[in-house]
Amino acid sequence: LTIMGDAGMERNVSPPDSAAQPDSLLSMTDVFLVSLIVGLFTYWFFFRKKKEEVPDLPKMQSVAAPVRDSSFIEKMKKTGRNIVVFYGSQTGTAEEFANRLSKDAHRYGLRGMAADPEEYDLSDLSRLSEIDKSLAVFCMATYGEGDPTDNAQDFYDWLQEADADLSGLRFAVFGLGNKTYEHFNAMGKYVDKRLEELGAQRIFELGLGDDDGNLEEDFITWREQFWPAVCEHFGVEATGEESSIRQYELVVHTDVNMNKIYTGEMGRLKSYENQKPPFDAKNPFLAQVTENRKLNEGGERHLMHLELDISNSKIRQSGDHVAVYPANDSSLVNQIGEILGTDLDTIMSLNNLDEESNKKHPFPCPTSYRTALTYYLDITNPPRTNVLYELAQYATDAGEQERLRKMASSAAEGKALYLSWVVEARRNILAILQDMPSLRPPIDHLCELLPRLQARYYSIASSSKVHPNAIHICAVTVEYETKTGRHNKGVATSWLKNKVPNENGSNSLVPMYVRKSQFRLPFKPSTPVVMIGPGTGIAPFMGFIQERAWLKQQGKEVGETVLYYGCRHEREDYLYRGELARFQQEGVLTQLHVAFSRDQAEKVYVQHLLKKNKENIWKLVHEGNAHIYVCGDARNMARDVQNTFYEIVAELGNMSQPQAVDYVKKLMTKGRYSLDVWS
């Protein structure tokens, strides 16, 4: 600007005639300078303008872009809620308990909402005190070996890293676990402890539900003491008896486009017709069953080996779990329809009466009652007490109504009746309807009350290195007679048993996805492995052995591969006998020890063989740094095997019992003692 000013001044001076020539030269210089300066100014002007616009663009975009409402605080304020019940749920039970607690709140002049922690920003917990009489409840299930459920993983990570001040937060925790597992209720215990460490105020003691016992009774017992504690804390009183409040309203569709009706899909409409990766719980892959053969040569049970074709799915697996979505037996579905006098092919939707809720429907809608009862609802497990309570109003016989209400009550007599008449007798909803002739609820309310049919998990019995386009499953069909003389069948295993490969393939498709697990071979192939898996617990070890054989073929140095397997009778249920013999002959399976529990007077199990070979076991573990893997029954086998390791370590390591226990626990911490067990 200074130069420009100077140039302008020089140009405006009127020189004498004698200075004409120099004047002319100066003018040309001036013109050049002015042109240059104007050019620079123009460039600067536009450059500056561009710079100013750049930061404005993201601001405009961020305002216009739809943002997920991740603040549960704002939602609670908007809808007048003061209790939020978060759930960490893998199979739907914790979510069900959370819904029950949130519905309870209205009895005390409070308003609750159930919330999936995956959908919200949990750092907002520090702001909950902004709401009067506010409380956060956590129904937290423990998955696997003390792990959080999939939907609570982010919450768990946040709790571990959080440095928040939660001094204004009031909370309570109910944990869902299973005592047969090593880390009983680890997630519930951790959340309870960690919230207190961050300054939150516990208003009621931690509840520990045990699925190996009676989870429903544990929950009811905790709940009946929890609410009086809430009342005392907030100075409120119950406004009346528990009442039936519908959460969803029925809409029957008489004129609907058939292309917009769900026929069993878990998430996206028509996802089974137009498959798109990635495949997960909400978008399962339809795998073709290419093989389904019976493994056992005798006995009453049916043990089977299935192979699923996962070509073009981009699914990768080894040592992981495959989840399959089964379908209920059509005869059970038809019987429910007949008893309730319903046209099962009616197309309907159940719409949430709470318009602010993230959960618009209890299952994918619109759909037919037949589809809902076949693919979406659990009709084979004994119903929980809240279902009985809600159904009681529809029993026209006073005695039956009283019986249902009693079983749903928290009285000792009612709990005992529920345990014997429902749980121990294994009465499902059909059996209850059959045994209570006056109980005829509207089918839409029944569909609202029944829990979701869950995916079933199986250990993968193959290696992705050897079978990149297939997943193998080893399973035993579940069939038993109940105390009432009914013949009950396992939903998934009976359904899988009938998945026979055929030419058109329509009857042999299995909706599935893979869930990662920590049950994996050591990073170094030279590390020895000791695998213990009786019965169908052999499944993941078939994959492990296949992989070790493949590594050996690649010229890798493969360490000792030791298997302890068990079955009832050598000539009846010795699974994969031929394959194991071949692996042993090839030198891949370096040791094979098989316990036939019922081939002699005294029963012999895998733990007896471990004890018999204790010197070799101790050498492999202590000197060879072997990794130990246990797969199968958690209630007895896994516990007995672990106790046997304590004994071996104590004896051969010259340790006391507490030292031996500590030694084994350290192996677990280091990932050298892994469990894949079920109860």
UniProtKB/TrEMBL annotation:
Record-level GO cellular component terms = cytosol
Residue ranges annotated as transmembrane are 25-46
EC number, as in UniProt:
1.6.2.4
InterPro entries in alphabetical order = CysJ-like_FAD-binding, FAD-bd_FR_type, Flavdoxin-like, Flavodoxin/NO_synth, Flavoprot_Pyr_Nucl_cyt_Rdtase, Flavoprotein-like_sf, FNR_nucleotide-bd, NADPH_Cyt_P450_Rdtase_alpha
Cofactor(s) for this UniProt protein: FMN; FAD
FAD-binding FR-type domain sequence ranges: 282-522
Molecular function GO terms recorded: flavin adenine dinucleotide binding; FMN binding; NADPH-hemoprotein reductase activity
Concerning Pfam families, the annotation shows: FAD_binding_1, Flavodoxin_1, NAD_binding_1
Instruction: Name the chain's protein.
Output: NADPH--hemoprotein reductase
Q: Give the main EC class.
A: oxidoreductase
Which keywords appear in this protein's UniProt record, sorted alphabetically?
A: Endoplasmic reticulum, FAD, Flavoprotein, FMN, Membrane, NADP, Oxidoreductase, Transmembrane, Transmembrane helix
- PANTHER family documented for this protein: NADPH--CYTOCHROME P450 REDUCTASE, NITRIC OXIDE SYNTHASE-RELATED
Q: Matching PROSITE patterns, A to Z?
A: FAD_FR, FLAVODOXIN_LIKE
**HAMAP family named in the record:** NCPR (MF_03212)
**Segments for region (Disordered):** 1-21
- GO process annotations (BP): response to hormone
Q: Which organism is it from?
A: Halcyon senegalensis
Domain of life, per UniProt, equals Eukaryota
Q: Provide the gene name from the record.
A: Por
In this chain the Flavodoxin-like domain maps to 83-227
